[in-house]
């Protein structure tokens, strides 16, 4: 009734598109939950990856009840499915054919079809009356056909139980009767053990010798009356004695018939206790310790009874085949040999990549061929909020399947994205002006945004610099620390100096002391103290390091006066100069003038005079070079000269490259340049190292043979 009312008044919404279902729109109804959808919407949903069933083979899922369907609906039908593309009639239910429904009801045991007009939703229960019997079948009642309740009477069931001997003692009940709970005693086939079982079970039946096997040795006397049965408790009669003369036809090893041994003089056997004649050959029976490839055989002479333990050894391999182990197979250790062969594992860890390509296998004694990765991927999905929960895999992760059914809006609420909203979807773009609270009162020029912080305010204002030197104009509002570029010039804590830093923020010296030179004049020379600033202590008693400076006017006058006198004297000797004679200027100036124009001797002059006197005392010629100080030619070793004679082109090319590298470093801006030679043999590399030592260049060899090469580096 609710579905009919909503479809008639066009208030029913499709769960896929969230739009109203019109009375003339083609629809599809789920036969499990009876939700109604637009036909086109359900087609798109069925083809989308999100609708696929979890196992991937069951088709697509209903958006409402998740019931899997194999076929995608293609035709618009009425609710009962008899009419295609039903026409809308004002007097009938929308999307119905107006005829009887005729669908089978949900009740399984109801044979009547639905007898109301074509309708949405489930069919109502059947109104017909039928006669039903109780569960035990002793009484009957008249009830509605659609009634699903079972009828029970108060009588005892009385049906025969599964054993076929006893009857059910329960009150009228649903379903089959419970198995018989009485117990019976059974005996094993050999008659040595007993047990109790439920009546009617398979274990209760006997074949005449017993009912079950106790898995012990039978132990019954054989037909010979001298030996006991060595078989495990068995249902059939015991076999004949295996040592009877009429049963044994060959020697113990089985190689020679007894008839042949009788011809050779052996005593004929009369009863089973007589010994079986031996042929004297090697036994040769296969032992249990051997394998399919190498069968170990008994090396004793033909004998009765069990063979002696094997004296051979066998090789067992670990399951990956990397290691081998030698083990003794004799002394009744065959079972231990099999256990060792199964459990023997080496300690080698597998270094192969797993199927994901990210992790190593690291399995000890690995025999896996696929190396599937059992770890969880755990990488972030494209939404940035959830992580991949699939097993570790290659390639990119799938898109996030999480979906929100809440509306996604911008900050101001003007732009909206309606559900379903895939996880990771960004808020919609809004062109309205931002309505968030701002720190300043200037006009807002940026649009509504989803980021928490607004863009900085770019309104142009006037602001003071950090040192309060000047008021600067056209400064964006968001800028706070502005420097005017002038010197700070604030008085420091010492009270003597001013800050020399460019206009800055905060105090000039926070945890430091003033280190500018003291400017207090000395007592004797009036030069400044120049020691690090010491406001609370007197100037230290140190020698003055200031150099005397000549007045520029005095120096210019002296040079001018000297040049004037020299010019007059040279003019008088012009004739001698034209003839090629020389003129000595020192004679043109008086000793008084020379004394006035002479500069005072400094420390460099004193050092030159001292060296000159020392050279005269040691009789050292000024033109000699005893310590090769002035020699600039390169010193080549004899071996390098011999190499140059053998391969002059190679040595010349190497020297040319080194010279070019040194010139490029000296003329360029870089302080270091390198050059890499191609791989070469040991002798050529030795030549490069020796030439690099001559040119003062670093040389280093890299890589291993046969790709070992030399890299040279020149430093300015």
From TrEMBL:
Give the organism, scientific name.
Bucorvus abyssinicus (Northern ground-hornbill)
Bilayer-crossing residues are: 326-345
Name used for this protein in its record: Transcriptional repressor NF-X1
Q: Top-down, what is the taxonomic lineage of the species of origin?
A: Eukaryota, Metazoa, Chordata, Craniata, Vertebrata
Could you tell me which PANTHER family the record lists for this protein? NUCLEAR TRANSCRIPTION FACTOR, X-BOX BINDING 1 NFX1 (PTHR12360), TRANSCRIPTIONAL REPRESSOR NF-X1 (PTHR12360:SF12)
Residues annotated as domain RING-type: 14-66
Task: Tell me which residues make up the R3H domain.
Answer: 648-716
For biological process, the GO terms are:
negative regulation of transcription by RNA polymerase II
Please give the family membership noted in the entry.
Answer: Belongs to the NFX1 family.
């Amino acid at each position: 009734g609710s579905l009919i009312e909503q479809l008639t008044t066009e208030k029913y919404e499709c769960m896929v598109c969230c739009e109203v279902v019109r009375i003339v729109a083609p629809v599809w109804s789920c036969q499990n939950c009876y939700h109604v959808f637009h036909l086109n919407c359900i087609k798109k949903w069925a083809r989308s990856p999100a609708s696929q069933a979890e196992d991937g083979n069951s088709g697509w899922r209903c958006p409402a009840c998740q019931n899997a369907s194999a076929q995608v609906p293609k035709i618009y039908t009425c609710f009962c499915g008899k009419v295609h593309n039903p026409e809308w009639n004002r007097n009938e239910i929308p999307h119905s054919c107006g005829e009887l429904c005729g669908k089978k009801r949900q009740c399984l045991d109801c044979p009547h079809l639905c007898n109301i007009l074509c309708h949405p939703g489930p069919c109502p229960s059947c109104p017909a009356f039928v006669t039903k019997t109780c569960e035990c079948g002793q009484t009957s009642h008249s009830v509605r056909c659609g009634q699903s309740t079972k009828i029970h009477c108060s009588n005892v069931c009385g049906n025969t139980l599964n054993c076929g001997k006893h009857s059910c003692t329960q009150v009228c009940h649903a379903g089959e009767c419970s198995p018989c709970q009485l117990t019976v005693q059974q005996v094993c086939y050999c008659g040595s053990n007993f047990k109790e079982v439920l009546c009617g079970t398979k274990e209760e039946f006997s074949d005449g010798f017993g009912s079950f096997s106790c898995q012990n040795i039978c132990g019954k006397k054989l037909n010979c009356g001298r030996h006991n049965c060595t078989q495990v408790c068995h249902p059939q009669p015991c076999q004949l004695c295996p040592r009877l003369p009429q049963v044994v036809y060959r020697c113990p090893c089985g190689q020679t018939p007894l008839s042949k041994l009788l011809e050779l003089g052996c005593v004929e056997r009369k009863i089973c206790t007589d010994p079986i004649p031996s042929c004297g050959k090697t036994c040769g029976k296969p032992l249990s310790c051997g394998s399919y490839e190498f069968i170990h055989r008994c090396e004793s002479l033909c004998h009765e009874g069990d063979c002696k333990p094997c004296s051979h050894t066998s090789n067992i391999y670990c399951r990956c085949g990397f290691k081998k182990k030698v083990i003794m197979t004799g002394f009744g250790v065959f079972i231990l040999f099999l256990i060792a062969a199964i459990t023997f594992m080496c300690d080698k860890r597998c270094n192969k990549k797993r199927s994901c390509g990210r992790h190593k296998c690291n399995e000890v004694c690995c025999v896996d061929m696929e190396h599937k990765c059992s770890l969880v991927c755990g990488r972030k999905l494209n939404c940035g909020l959830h992580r991949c929960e699939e097993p570790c895999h290659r390639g990119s992760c799938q898109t996030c399947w999480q979906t929100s059914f809440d509306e996604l809006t911008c900050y101001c609420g003007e732009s909206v994205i309606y559900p379903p909203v895939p996880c990771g979807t960004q808020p919609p773009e809004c062109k309205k002006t931002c309505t968030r609270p701002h720190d300043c009162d200037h006009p807002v020029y940026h649009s509504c945004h989803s980021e928490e912080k607004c863009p900085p305010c770019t309104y142009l204002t006037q602001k003071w610099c950090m040192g309060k030197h000047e008021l600067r104009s056209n400064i964006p509002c968001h800028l706070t620390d502005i420097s005017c570029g002038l010197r700070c010039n604030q008085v420091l804590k010492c009270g003597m100096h001013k800050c020399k830093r460019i206009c800055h923020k905060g105090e000039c010296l926070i945890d430091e002391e003033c280190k500018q030179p003291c400017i207090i004049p000395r007592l004797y020379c009036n030069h400044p103290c120049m020691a690090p600033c010491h406001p609370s202590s007197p100037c230290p008693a140190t020698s003055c390091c200031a150099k005397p400076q000549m007045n520029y006017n005095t120096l210019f006058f002296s040079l001018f006066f000297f040049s004037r006198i020299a010019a007059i004297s040279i003019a008088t000797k012009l004739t001698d100069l034209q003839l090629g004679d020389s003129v000595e200027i020192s004679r043109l100036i008086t000793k008084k003038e020379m004394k006035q124009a002479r500069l005072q001797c400094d420390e460099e002059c004193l050092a030159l005079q001292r060296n000159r006197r020392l050279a005269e005392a040691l009789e050292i010629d000024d033109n000699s070079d005893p310590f090769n100080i002035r020699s600039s030619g390169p010193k080549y070793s004899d071996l390098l000269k011999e190499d140059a004679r053998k391969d002059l082109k190679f040595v010349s090319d190497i020297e040319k490259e080194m010279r070019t590298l040194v010139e490029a470093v000296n003329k360029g801006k870089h302080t270091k340049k390198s050059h890499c030679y191609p791989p070469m043999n040991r002798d050529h590399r030795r030549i490069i190292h020796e030439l690099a030592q001559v040119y003062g260049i670093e040389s280093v060899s890299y890589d291993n043979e046969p790709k070992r090469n030399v890299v040279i580096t020149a430093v300015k």
